[in-house]
Amino acid sequence: MTQNNLAIAYSDRINGSRADNLERAIGFYDANLTVYTFEDFPEKWAMTQNNLAADYSDRIMGEKPENIKKAIELYHNALTIRTREAFPQNHAQTLLNLGIAYRNVPDLQLAYNTFATAIETVEYLRSEIHSGDESKQKLAEEWNKLYLNMVEVCLKLKNYTAAI
Questions:
Q1: Residues 48-85: tens digit of each pLDDT
Q2: Using an 8 Å Cβ cutoff, are 145 and 96 in contact?
Q3: What Å distances lie between residue 11 and 58, 74, 85, 91, 160, CA to CA?
Q4: Which of 20, 41, 122, 155 is deepest in the core (most CB within 10 A)?
Q5: For 106-119, what is each residue's pLDDT tens digit?
Q6: Buried b vs exposed e over 51-75: b needs ≥16 C-beta within 10 Å?
Q7: DSSP characters over 88-124
């Protein structure tokens, strides 16, 4: 947990070089994965895969296409545990991150498909709320970034009907 917390701290650190901070964060996440293994701590392993992918997406050192390729691989790893059935909220968050990575490649069709699956998961979460429209609206607002990314991809694909 300390390795994970250090990685998060370096990912968010504003002092020093952003590139160096991300490299340190990646190092701490890699060290974290020696303990949080798929076999022993699958949920923590998946969380680390997702967080490590986010840092590879933002990574400054190395080649950008290779960093995005690595991020996509790590997001897919996380999704083996972060399924809609087991962890729907984490599933949707990882799909959002993966969709953004695909958009940055750019592979707009994969981004669209990924965002669509994330939206299905968010709508599933909304359908599970039985306490009224206000709670459903609040959940939709929490996922505003997802919907905005989907609209952006739809516009780039010239799929104006879906964007609306």
A1: 999 999 999 999 999 999 999 999 999 999 999 999 99
A2: yes
A3: 9, 17, 29, 21, 36
A4: 122
A5: 999 999 999 999 99
A6: bbbbbbbebeeeeeeebbebbbebb
A7: HHHHHHHHHHHHHHHHHTT-HHHHHHHHHHHHHHHHH
